[in-house]
Amino acid sequence: MPRPSNHRTPSDPPGTPARRAALRLLDAVLRRGLAIEQALDGSTQGLAPSDRGLAHAIAAEVLRRLADLDDLIDSATRNRLPDDAKARFVLRIALVQALRLGTPPHAAISTALPLVDGGPRKLVHGVFGTLMRQNAVLTDPPALPGAVYARIAGNWGERVADAACAAIAAPPPLDLTLRGATPVAGESLLPGHVRIAAGTSIPEREGFAEGEWWVQDIAASLPARLIGARNGSGSGRALDLCAAPGGKTLQLAAAGWDVTAVDASESRLARLHENLERTGLSATVIAADLLKWAPDFEADAVLLDAPCSATGIFRRHPDVLHRVRPRLIAEMAELQGQLLPRAARWVRPGGLFVFATCSLEPEEGEAQIERFLTDHPEFAIDPVLPDELPEGLVAHPRGWLRTLPGMLAEQGGLDGFFMVRLMRVAGDS
């Protein structure tokens, strides 16, 4: 499918550029395998912020509902459209607007038809019209892609897989991590945490410009919480590895640590610099490949939020449901297996080492740590304690924490993570 332009021609109705950008985003995810955030800037270049937001919302909702949208399309076509046919992409965009985003059907189809660009406009118009006359609906919960459902069910059971279906029905609430004691309105699940409704405009919210808080899923905030506040012993130096975009660096800095934050992506580190400036917190920031870089000191605490498949963050990033394959999971697990022992060497005797991934895959969590502990007897699990967790979460009997779809569902859920806190109990490695 050719990559569509964002430019509006004189005959296009208003709103078409945002739909063209949504088509570019879907093409980037479904055909080229890119993350939606990775493709966002290029796909929405030249658009006003409101159109950029609309394009992202349309594409994300299509990705949440892709299997169900395709079932509707297939029910109204005599010959099945190829998966990569532009007509299928355009119909997904038109249908999700009319059936989920509240766009009047005439506006949904009028802004979608120009995207066909010389293709079968009559087919697209006819299928859309047929489904509207049939009062087609997209029901909850949405269906996961079959391979994803099978993988989750195989690892964690059908109950968790069904909970994952429910979790993609709508964007989740927003979690804020507080810099200090300034109160912020919302629901608190832990000290220093506030949960607010999805769709809230972040830059305009009170306290954002003053750096009183930052957005961070509560599951993503737990690894730094496992390190805790600087206690006055040792050097007080902490390493935040694979640090960008910086939520954990901010947590550690706010807790009094002398933080060195390292990440290979200079573009992602730009956001970390912005957040440090906004919050008034400080850290040493280094752009480097962890397989080549090493510190010249041993740290009291090391946090390795390792690169992973990111399958646990599908609620906010539904693109992972469609672009993550077993090969990527295996590649990420191999990389983690290289990073874990390397980062462990930088922990002083008696120091803490927290390993975390935002993945639902055991290969990127439990299996990594079991293998690491077998090979590194100088480390032992320091079990996660009940008072370190939101009510309703329980650590595994082995002492680590695994968060899954369905947990804290009544409070709005949380991302899927694996995390473990280790202590270096001996000096030899």
Automatic annotation (TrEMBL):
It comes from the Bacteria. The keyword RNA-binding applies. One of its GO terms (molecular function) is RNA methyltransferase activity. GO terms for biological process: regulation of DNA-templated transcription; RNA methylation. The active site is at C358 (nucleophile). Keywords: Methyltransferase, RNA-binding, S-adenosyl-L-methionine, Transferase. Pfam families: Methyltr_RsmB-F, NusB. PROSITE patterns: SAM_MT_RSMB_NOP. CDD domains: AdoMet_MTases. InterPro entries: MeTrfase_RsmB-F_NOP2_cat, MeTrfase_RsmB-F_NOP2_dom, NusB-like_sf, NusB_RsmB_TIM44, RCMT, SAM-dependent_MTases_sf. Residues 138-425 form the SAM-dependent MTase RsmB/NOP-type domain. Belongs to the class I-like SAM-binding methyltransferase superfamily. RsmB/NOP family. This is RsmB/NOP family class I SAM-dependent RNA methyltransferase.
